[in-house]
Design brief:
This protein has 143 residues and is mostly helical. The protein contains 5 helices and no strands. The longest helix has 31 residues.
């Protein structure tokens, strides 16, 4: 979503996501220092987070690329739903990594199924939004 289109809740959601990402990065560095984790491991975790976050941010700026629609078709409610979907997925991703990082720093071991739950939540979110977008596209084509 472009800056001139953002509403107050949109800005707050972006700010929460950005602060959570920065907190995750700080916790990764702290974890590496406290537990003696190698610099390569920390750099890979940080790089993966930054790349996924940047990619999802770019998709929010160009929502027509998510579904391969033309800019003329990706307007109105379809555009808004696509942006909300990308933002929701980005927040789930960031919060999922932040939670594991907090647990790592506290010395708690995560259950192996946690990553599967986060992935299932992302897939479910995408599925719900895509279903709504497809319904809107079909209703536009009937007219």
């Amino acid at each position: 979503m472009r800056k001139n289109e953002m509403t107050w809740p949109d800005m707050m959601a972006e700010a929460v996501g950005l602060v959570s990402m920065l907190l995750y990065l700080g916790l990764q560095i702290y974890y590496g220092i406290i537990y003696g984790v190698g610099l390569t491991d920390i750099a890979m975790n940080v790089a993966a987070m930054i790349l996924v976050y940047a990619g999802l941010t770019m998709l929010a700026a160009y929502p027509e690329r998510v579904n391969g629609l033309t800019p003329e078709v990706c307007t109105g409610k379809i555009r808004r739903l696509t942006i909300l979907m990308v933002r929701a997925i980005k927040l789930i991703f960031v919060f999922g990594l932040l939670f594991t990082s907090i647990c790592d720093v506290m010395g708690k071991e995560m259950n192996e199924g946690y990553s599967l739950v986060v992935v299932a939540l992302i897939v479910a979110t995408a599925g719900i939004f895509e279903y709504r977008i497809i319904r809107l596209l079909r209703s536009r084509n009937k007219k």
